Amino acid sequence: MTYQAPWLSSTNRNRHGRGMRRPMFGTRLPHYRTRSGMFDDMVAGQLKRLNEAWPELMKPVEFAVEDVPPSTPTPWDEGDRTLSQGFAANHGIPARVVLYRMPIQMQSRDRIELQFLIRDEVVMRLAELYGRSPEEIDPMWGV
């Protein structure tokens, strides 16, 4: 089955039957992407960049994006985990890194700062999981 864009199909009519429903702007324009979609794209870009440099470190780790951290932390959780959290591998479950989208977006003022903040969080959590310094994984960390 091939995908057909909604504005090309003839069955989409507005509720009063006066005409075709069409998006207000094209799907390739920047306004089509939501803030969460752009955040996911930025995370994917950082993961791709790090995977090219460190494939042996990135392959066994799962990455996820959540909107907000859980409101009730477990008793064994320690430290500040407002922006991201790393989970070590145990009992057949691979190591995981979870980034919290809304706190990270609230910390940044623009897209460039957001990209740097995402980069720093991913690198910091990888460094914690492997017991390395963040500068060893990414020399530009924190700059």
From TrEMBL:
Against Pfam families, the record matches this protein to: Zincin_1 (PF06262)
Locations of Polar residues compositional bias? Answer: 1-12
The record's region (Disordered) falls at 1-27
Which InterPro entries does the protein's record reference?
Zincin_1, Zincin_1_sf
Q: Which Gene3D superfamilies match?
A: 3.30.2010.20
The name under which this protein is listed is Transposase
